[in-house]
Amino acid sequence: MKIELINKLNSGEARIGIIGLGYVGLPLALRYLEVGYPVLGLDIDPKKVESIKAGESYIRHIPSRPLKQAVQQGRLEASLDFSRAGEADALILCVPTPLDKHREPDLTYVINSLEEILPVMRPGQVVSLESTTYPGTTDEELCPRIESAGLRIGRDVFLVYSPEREDPGNPGFNTRNIPKVCGGITRDCLETGMALYGRVIDQLVPVSSTRTAEAVKLMENIFRSVNIALVNEMKTAFMKMGIDIFEVIRAASTKPFGYMPFYPGPGLGGHCIPIDPFYLTWKAREYDVATRFIELAGEINTSMPYFVVQRVMEVLNEFDKSLKGSRILILGLAYKPDVDDDRESPTYKIMQLLENKGADVYYNDPFVPVIKPSREYAHYAGRKSVQVSGEFDLVILCTAHRDYRDLDPSSLNVPVLDTRGFFADSPGKVFRA
Fold it and tell me: How confident is the model at residue 170 (pLDDT cuts 50, 70, 90)?
């Protein structure tokens, strides 16, 4: 069974099923198509499925042309029907793993997806989970469910965990050239997983188990979370001393060893860094381990939108204005520059806090012209980006899009609160946050 499947994967004849066609699944599908594999995409969102059928990309940095060509050639199909999962030789789960309202792991999308495909799973398939999660998810949650369907892991079905490593909007790194970690439940599972990714990824990094692979992803993102929390805390201290944290970072970055620059901001965004630390702290409690350092970093980063709002009130006060009734324009809704990804963006929290205090809040973002529905901020769905002008009492720069480089803060003739050090050398009423 294993040898036959590996041969199909190595030859490019295997059909690849990708479950979840978002910021991870869609570029992965395109990479498999580029190499020559036939791809079946499954998603619960009818808009995504219809877009793919029409050959149209719904992610700004992903072009439509290769999608359209693959659909016209019959090499790419998209469907809402998860019962078609039996048609695929490989099933790659790229679904969200958010936190619930208690900030605990929510594996609903992973479990539901697996439950949907279980009735049609068959011997001779490899299943790979790419969603970020806590160590033990693959062997504790996926293994028992698959084996309860009468499929033996490592003999009938081969199960691996291989964490996604996407950096949307970064032209230097893509699905192909980002090294990929892979761990299997058994040695045969790992060998099959390596064959699954071998022709599409330049460098594979095999590890001893799925738990190790799951821990790798958490290590990467917790490392960033902790260091961002450090510079966020230093920013607040340096600000009291009249020191520009961004000037400090620029100067410190000239040291050619022993230093790596991280940058402060209005809070954490994206689907990984604001969420992943809580996956580990939750799992660590099962082992009576207190992850105090990680939790403190999470508290600092979570507090940054409140810090921004406090700075808003201080700046408005300098101009004899109160927050209540003020018209405020926020520049940038996406969580990082030059992408249309607004998942977990701290800007939403800032908007909510300002409106709760009576401000009239508007936003501008060339990458997010209309706010899409979300679980936590559903009430913002449909709100549209407005033009940048001086018709506001205050402007807040939250996302450093390149489109804002040509913006002269002094031309607005209103105070500008810069949370990213973006307008460092610009004239005008620019304040730090």
Answer: confident
Q: Show the CA angle centred on residue 358, arms to residues 353 and 364, nearest 5°.
A: 65
232-236 mean pLDDT: 96
Listed by start position, the domains of the chain span 2-208, 223-432
- Please list, in sequence order, all residues whose beta carbon lies within 8 angstroms of the beta carbon of residue 408, skipping any fewer than 6 positions away: 426, 427, 428
* Candidates 182, 189, 272, 398; catalytic one: 272
Residue 272 has pLDDT above 90, yes or no: no
CATH fold for domain 223-432: Rossmann fold (3.40.50)
Q: Hey, do 2-208 and 223-432 end up sharing a CATH topology, with the first three levels equal?
A: yes
Q: Which fold is adopted by the domain 2-208?
A: Rossmann fold (3.40.50)
272 is catalytic: yes
Which of 364, 371, 362 is CA-nearest to residue 342? 371
Put simply, whether the predicted model's pTM sits higher than 0.70 gets the answer yes
Neighbours of 23 (CB within 10 A): 22
Instruction: Check if the beta carbon of residue 171 is closer than 8 Å to that of residue 196.
Output: no
Q: Which of 301, 233, 242 is nearest to 266 (CA)?
A: 301
